[in-house]
Design brief:
With about 180 residues, the chain is mainly alpha-helical. The chain contains 11 helices and no strands. The protein is elongated and about 55 Å long. It is found in: Cell membrane; Cell projection, Dendrite; Nucleus; Perikaryon.
Length: about 180
């Protein structure tokens, strides 16, 4: 029988607090933020799919559960703002309304790019300044360079650590255990 909703909420909160109090890196941190009900989601995830996440960083980013697992891992490293920025840029590039373009760009800039932004991403001064200049006439490509830098930072830095992390290795063993 499913746990009453309030108990489930507390467990999620404990997991999040656990991430803050000690750099937890466990399979439970991943299941706590899955887009669907964890057990149902993981029954749908095959070992083959999870193994393919190691093929390339873009394969990982293009898979719903891969993205969730990577996000859970980044939370343990306190660097999820990189992924959140990358996702915000992906969403921004789909903006069709010219009216919304400037306000969306401003929001992304203030949240991730500006010096001392609440979720400031780790980019060099030149990229930050170029992006600031792009903001004078925002276009769908105004974050391209910053997004590219953040993508390669995650790919070179966080992604290899993710593939060695307990979150990923536990996840693989869970999918393999179901097959046996």
């Amino acid at each position: 029988t499913p746990a009453p909703p309030h108990r489930h909420r507390n467990r999620g909160m404990r997991t999040r607090l656990g991430c803050l109090s000690h750099k937890s890196d466990s399979y439970n941190d991943f299941t706590a933020i899955l887009p669907d009900k964890p057990n149902r989601a993981l029954k749908r995830l095959s070992t083959e799919e999870a193994t393919r996440w190691a093929d390339s960083f873009d394969v990982l980013l293009s898979h719903k559960y891969g993205l969730a697992a990577f996000r859970a891992f980044l939370k343990t490293e306190f660097s999820e703002e990189n992924l959140e920025f990358w996702l915000a840029c992906e969403d921004f590039k789909k903006t069709r309304s010219a009216a919304k373009l400037a306000s969306k760009a401003q929001r992304i800039f203030e949240e991730f790019i500006d010096v001392q932004a609440p979720r400031e991403v780790n980019i060099d001064f030149q990229t930050r300044e170029l992006t600031r200049r792009n903001m004078q006439e925002p276009s769908l490509s105004c974050f391209d360079q910053a997004q590219g830098k953040v993508h390669s930072l995650m790919e070179k830095d966080s992604y290899p650590r993710f593939l060695r992390s307990k979150i990923y290795t536990d996840l693989l063993s869970q999918t393999q255990r179901r097959l046996s």
